[in-house]
Amino acid sequence: MARRLRGGLRLNATGRFAPSPTGTLHLGNLRTALLAWLYARAQGAPFLVRIEDLDTGRVRERFEREQLADLAALGLDWDGAPVRQSERRALYEDALARLDADGIVYPCWCTRAEIREASSAPHGPLPEGHYPGTCRRLTAAQRAEREASGRPPALRVDSGAAEIAFVDRLHGAQRGLVDDFVVRRNDGAFAYNLAVVVDDGAQGIGEIVRGDDLLDSTPRQLWLADRLHLPRPTFAHVPLVLGPDGARLAKRHGAVTLADRLEQGETADEVRARLAVSVGLADDDERPSPAELAARFDPDRFAPPPSGPLPGLWTG
Ligand code: GLU
């Protein structure tokens, strides 16, 4: 669905939450889901759920069921049936074939250790996690040698060291270099960066709301969207919830899932309220419904505090 701007320009505000069913959602994930839902629903737009289950070694069906039940328990609804990435491989194949036809896909045999070593060598240091392009520069003989090793290669794209600029709703103007990132892993699984761009494009997502740990992935994804001629969505990278020790929220921090909180005697309404209070969307003594939160949520003005612990969670 769209919102009409002055001058008749239409902006697509369709949103999504895209959990990986590799664990139970904690309060930080649930707060991100709530915010993604609010950005979409406050603009009267559809909200979709996509199950990012490509990492088959870590995916458990039970987590998918739990995650959907948690969203529903918090009153977050979605349009249509959730889609699963594992059922959409043909779309990723097709995108990969198009990139390959453009001549920008190449095989890479580097191990993690080799990449670490190369990225701190003479031309470095590259930005953390960036691939130095080793396998793009192989001679025919070096390539034949690697092919003969029998070790299956990952597939990377030659990004030409592009630089991508974009504006994040919460972080403002951003600029980032794009390295030759992986589009298919050496175990054959399509990489997150490829699948997420293909799906957001195919599902018509206009408003991407996710944790700010993914801010650094955005230049790669925008570069890929451009290559695949997909429209660029809007981004809001929202703050993460931290534990009392300042580390990202995790199971070891205690009662951090919805089930844990319910077991502690809280209601789902209280949990939702706690999440809303932590980002300035409700007062301490309120228990606003999702619809009430959507009515007061202004996507253009929302300014949450930076990542931090949830107020009141550990102090009673
Ligand atoms: N599946 C990713 C995760 O759970 C989220 C990807 C995204 O929102 O772009 O971290």
Topology:
Elements: E1 2-4, E2 10-12, E3 15-17, H1 27-41, E4 47-51, H2 61-73, E5 83-84, H3 89-101, E6 105-108, H4 112-119, H5 140-148, E7 154-157, E8 163-168, E9 172-177, E10 182-184, H6 192-202, E11 207-211, H7 218-227, E12 234-238, H8 258-263, H9 268-278, H10 290-296
Parallel strand pairs: 3-4, 4-5, 11-12
Antiparallel strand pairs: 1-2, 6-7, 7-10, 8-9
Helix pairs in contact: 1-9, 3-6, 6-7
Bound molecules: glutamic acid (GLU).
Can you put this structure into words, describing what you see?
The chain is of the alpha/beta class and 316 residues long. Helix content is 33%, strand content 16%. Helix 1 (27-41) packs across helix 9 (268-278), helix 3 packs across helix 6 (192-202) and helix 6 crosses helix 7. The chain is elongated, with a radius of gyration of 21 Å.
Work out the strand percent: 15-25%
In angstroms, what is the radius of gyration?
A: 21 Å
Q: CATH architecture of the largest domain, please?
A: 3-Layer(aba) Sandwich
The CATH homologous superfamily of the largest domain is termed: HUPs
Low-confidence stretches: none
CATH class of the largest domain: Alpha Beta
Mean of residue pLDDT?
94
Q: Could you give the distance between the termini?
A: 42 Å
Q: What's the β-strand tally?
A: 12
